[in-house]
């Protein structure tokens, strides 16, 4: 028994004859008769009484009709709604903190305008967590700062930003350019391990001959800015995130000869992931955001 059998059966119910049903379905009349006979043989029932040139439903036929109408209606509804599943489902995004704070809200707003019925869920965390979430299929697309570490993930370069040195406004380094050696022994306020920003800072400082001494570790950039503003140590943080504090004068920038922290952003997805239309539009919007 197939769905085609049920559609033919329902057409015969509506038309009252195999010939009329065949005309409505644009198939040969013998095909209709064979389908009805196969249904009757499969269920060992008589579905129609054949009186004259018309077919009349038996009690078993009426029960079959009730079930068949329900089954076919559900399938028709599924087929109709499946055309919009991609645009009415859920898109799961992940982002590292800088992107999630600065660029992502505007990108998501534009995507939501394009797909108003789409539910967009966002997770903001460090880069390692975002990569792991993509590998576990917990999110569909992820945006990170730094280098992608897993070959299973497709990697699309986007724009980038710069991390800068910060200190208290009364610190001797404030507004100055110093040598790398002068950083020795300075207490550092760092992001947590797993942060791409921290990895970049530590590797760059060590390459410049500086062995940093972490005093604070935090997932919150604002907590680190507050620590610097209280004179607890120096930090290296993304310029877009600390610009308000610099403008307010609660922290000051300084420079270290021969050391800069430039980083690239990347959009990731699993190489085996099917990209829906909203995902492809999201990728386009991300490219446009950093053009």
Describe the structure.
β8, α9 and β9 form a beta-alpha-beta unit. By secondary structure, this protein is an alpha/beta fold. The longest helix has 24 residues. Strands 3, 4, 5, 6, 7, 8, 9, 10, 11 and 12 form a 10-stranded mixed beta sheet that branches. A two-stranded antiparallel ribbon has the order 1-2. 46% of the residues lie in helices and 25% in strands. The mean pLDDT is 90. α1 crosses α3 and α7 packs across α12.
List its salient traits.
alpha/beta, single chain, 25% strand, 12 strands, two-stranded antiparallel sheet, 291 residues, rod-shaped, ten-stranded mixed beta sheet
Quickly describe the structure:
With about 290 residues, the chain is of the alpha/beta class. It has helices at about 5-15, 20-25, 30-45, 60-80, 85-90, 95-100, 105-115, 125-135, 195-205, 220-230, 240-250, 275-290; strands at about 50, 55, 90-95, 120-125, 140-145, 155-165, 175-180, 185-190, 215-220, 235-240, 250-255, 260-270. The chain is rod-shaped.
Structural class: alpha/beta
Q: In sequence order, what are the helices and strands, one letter per element?
A: HHHEEHHEHHEHEEEEHEHEHEEH
Regions with pLDDT < 50 over 5+ consecutive residues? none
Strand content: 25-35%
The main pleated sheet reads as:
10 strands, mixed
How many E-type strands? 12
Oligomer: single chain
Radius of gyration: 33 Å
Distance between the termini: 57 Å
Tell me, briefly, the overall form: rod-shaped
Count of alpha/pi helices: 12
Average pLDDT works out at: 90
How helix-rich are the residues, as a percent range?
A: 40-55%
